[in-house]
């Protein structure tokens, strides 16, 4: 009895959200946009998971860090 051939699934290529939509502006004063790139623990999501290009990931990291310094985003979550 032979096994049926396995289907190979190819992961979708991730596209940078900021390169795809030029009207989307990254700014440290927009915490709602930046929250999409932070885990529930407060860590910055890496580029290989978020799909951002290297240029926009660097800009995103500095924007998140600036927003944290002026208390628009939390550094960590409280353990309650």
Index terms:
80 residues, mainly alpha, 4 helices
Order of helices and strands: HHHH
User: Whole-number radius of gyration?
Assistant: 18 Å
In CATH, what is the homologous superfamily of the domain at 17-69? Ribosomal protein S18
CATH architecture call of the domain at 17-69: Irregular
Reported by name, the CATH topology of the domain at 17-69 is 30s Ribosomal Protein S18
Beta strands, count: 0
Topology of this protein?
Layout: H1 17-20, H2 31-34, H3 47-50, H4 54-69
Quick structural overview:
This protein has 80 residues and is mostly helical. It has helices spanning 17-20, 31-34, 47-50, 54-69. It is 35% helix and 0% strand.
Explained architecture:
With 80 residues, the chain is mainly alpha-helical. It has a domain of 53 residues: Irregular (30s Ribosomal Protein S18), CATH 4.10.640.10. Helix content is 35%, strand content 0%. The protein is built from four helices and no strands.
């Amino acid at each position: 009895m032979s096994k049926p051939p396995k289907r190979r699934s190819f992961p979708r290529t991730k596209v940078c959200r900021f390169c795809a939509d030029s009207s989307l502006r990254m700014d440290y004063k927009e915490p709602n946009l930046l929250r999409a790139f932070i885990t529930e623990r407060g860590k910055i999501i890496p580029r290989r998971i978020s799909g951002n290009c290297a240029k926009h990931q660097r800009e995103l990291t500095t924007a998140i860090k600036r927003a944290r310094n002026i208390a628009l985003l939390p550094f960590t979550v409280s353990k309650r």
